[in-house]
Amino acid sequence: MPGHKNHDVNARDEREQFLEYATEYHAPVLCNTVIEGLITDQEGIYLDATFGGGGHTAAILDNLDSAGVVIGLDQDDDALSEGRKRLSDAVSEGRLILVKANFSDLESVVREQTAGPITGILFDLGVSSHQLDVGERGFSHRFEGPLDMRMDQKAELDADLIVNKWDASDLVFIFRKYGEEPRAKAVARAIVKARPIRDTNQLANVIRGAVFVLHEAKTVMRVFQALRIRVNEELDVLESALQAAAIVLKPKGRVAAISYHSLEDRRVKRFLRTGNFEGILQRDIYGNALTPFKELNRKLLTATESEQEKNPRARSARLRIAERTDLSL
Ligand SMILES: C[S@@+](CC[C@H](N)C(=O)[O-])C[C@H]1O[C@@H](n2cnc3c(N)ncnc32)[C@H](O)[C@@H]1O
After folding, report:
1. Does the CB atom of residue 72 touch ligand 1 within 6 A?
2. Most buried pick, 91, 167, 216, 307, via CB within 10 A?
């Protein structure tokens, strides 16, 4: 990977460098565009709030000087222990600090690890390919596994509790809210009737049995998504983390956020454009926007066809990059 050359966030590097940082654990999405948009100071301090397989972190480190530092944060112990092996040199040189935490606590993590505001933050939301592909984690309907879906394996709430214990009305609520599933009632009724449901295969079959064949695949996907979002409180922690990002970033510092579904992207878009989740822009009496961020790419950044072909996960990726304004909070 060559050194960092420009900050044009719309620049598209058609060379297939996205493969360079891929491992069996995970292939980082939109890697070059993230690097180009995120790094503004090669001696800066960057937070990778979703360390995962460490692909983006490795690319950031390669584009910093020896004085630059990355704080890599994940709530999954497995991701961090793999990361310690993969990037052991950077860890021992003090250029990479790995921390187990939920990114909703990023403000306190940054305060503990650094003296002042930081230069950039990356969010690559959702789960890693490794988490999805390991049946025992219970994230995917494609693999047999327990009803788990916790990114933090020490968390109390898992999918089993929701699927086997929650009232039908609560199931309907989360399938609608987090899965935007139109057949939520029929699915909830079928789940309650089929209890106890022991694993991901059985759950997927119950969901399929509750809807017409035509809707089976989408409904299974949406219900699994809804359960995962609720188990990990993904939308609430995203909102807290975006607000914290505005606190810990220095003026002109950047945030890059990759979303994989519209529920995430809507929150990211509204916050980066207006500083709130209603998407209402406040202005001062002179007409200046009162917002902690200025979005740098009005057009959504997406993966090239070539990247999408090689990494199907990249197909739904939507990247937004914004710069911290000097509005004090
Ligand atoms: C899509 S993967 C990131 C992949 C990474 N960018 C790479 O290049 O390998 C998302 C990672 O973020 C973690 N994660 C998701 N939500 C989190 C949260 N609220 N707090 C901390 N980690 C989170 C997941 O455990 C997962 O390891």
Report:
1. no
2. 307
